[in-house]
Amino acid sequence: MKKLAFIKRSNGSHWVGDGFPVQNIFSYNDIAEKISPFLMMDHAGPTVFPPTQEKLGVGQHPHRGFETVTIVYQGGVSHRDSSGGGGTIGPGDVQWMTAASGLIHEEFHSEDFAQQGGPFEMIQLWVNLPAKDKMSKPGYQGITSDKITDVLLANDAGTARIIAGAFENVKGAAHTFTPMNVWDLRLNAGKTLSLDLPKGHTTALYVLSGTLKIDTQIIKKAEMAVMEREGTALAAEIMEDAVVLLLSGEPLNEPIAGHGPFVMNTRAEITQAIQDYNNGMFGQIVATS
Question: pTM of the prediction?
């Protein structure tokens, strides 16, 4: 049985650009080794934006050495990058961008959402790449909700949307470089969540709404339960209807050197990333008419 290691709470709130009011739940500066292969997670919202004709979001910026995963719960996000990737996603959809050797991207509220306004909530997760893949070709996966399979959980505990990884014989839509599970859980109050996860993997449950109880500890909204890596069985009491993001992955066990939007294995590689970006080697986002 997996035991609770600790509860991770928000590092504080800030704005990313002018479109994403986020709480930073963890980053490579705080629990990097304990949460590997995951590097960072921001929870944007929930908040309400009024209708606007303005383009709200964050403009062009670089990344190298990892992947960004954007999960939309409410609202809409449009993305473009210098690899040619891009698209618009709404509730239930996911964008999985592989920065790898380096690219420039931008993220804004989708045009339809901006014009209509309304509730907005999303998660952005950074997933580390192993050293051998950090300089791979950049890529983009636009995963719409119809490509994400829902499965019923045991004990009438709720449902799981399998974004990445596998649940029994159901495989997630996302391609990943290393073994991991990213599941969107919708859980029923009064039931018990029981899951079997790979031995030795990092495992965490982030509560977007509702309440869980694990090992006598209460896990509330905007809190993350990080489990011990020993054991395979995970159990949680569902105290209130809950929306939970499950993260589980094989630790990379490699050095982490991070500087803002670059995450590599050595400081020399960070210096090189900055030089490459300044020299225009991350490409350009092609203008659209």
Answer: 0.96
